[in-house]
Amino acid sequence: MLDIAQVTVLAAAGFLAGAVNGVAGGGSLISFPALMAMGYSPVTANVTSALAALPGYLGGLAGYRDELPAVAPRARRLAPVSVAGAACGSVLLLGAPAERFTAVVPFLVLASVLALAMQGMVARRLSGTRAATGGLGLLAGQFVVSLYGGYFAAGLGVMMLAVLGTFLSEDLHRLNALKSALSLVVGLVSALCFTAFGPVEWIPVAVMSLTGLAGGRSGVVLARRVPPHYLRRLIVGFGLVLSIALFMR
Question: What is the pTM of this model?
Fold first, then answer.
């Protein structure tokens, strides 16, 4: 059982994670280390954080309901590769030794942070070669990022937003709406696998899910009022600190 202080930490982490996911992705970079700080193993923290993120994705998606009709065709096109990638990543996580996952966690966190930091530069370099539908590069990139999301929940939104922003010429709000829809697909597939076979801690899931739902909706409101580059810089800075801490550990 958790004490009041632990529940408070989980509730705050869930709300902040949901809000960050609603803005630009990367909320699991808050919930994942919060769970690890409470003593859970990296694998347990990962699968628990993945399940707790689902309501936050729903909250973020609801906040972008005005943009959903415009991105729905692309969401339907990218959903199959997202399901396939998430399933492969989840199987890889649950089938491999836990020690292997623990060893690569700092590198995965750093990769997600660098992806967000470099998104604008990469997108500008490829802006002249973007296709109207994103082309095969978008399908391949979405499969890879969904596999990443099935394997490591932290940073999924960051990685996905980087891929979508690289291949699609859309404003940030539509990209976020598409990201929220596809993150929900990846999260649902992973949740099915983790619920059946993973070491899930259900009390943290319940606490963080409830506050994450409210945070996701609040994050969308914040995203419409605060310049996105400020929020990205904040997430990148936090992610770098987390990555350094994990490497030192």
Answer: 0.79
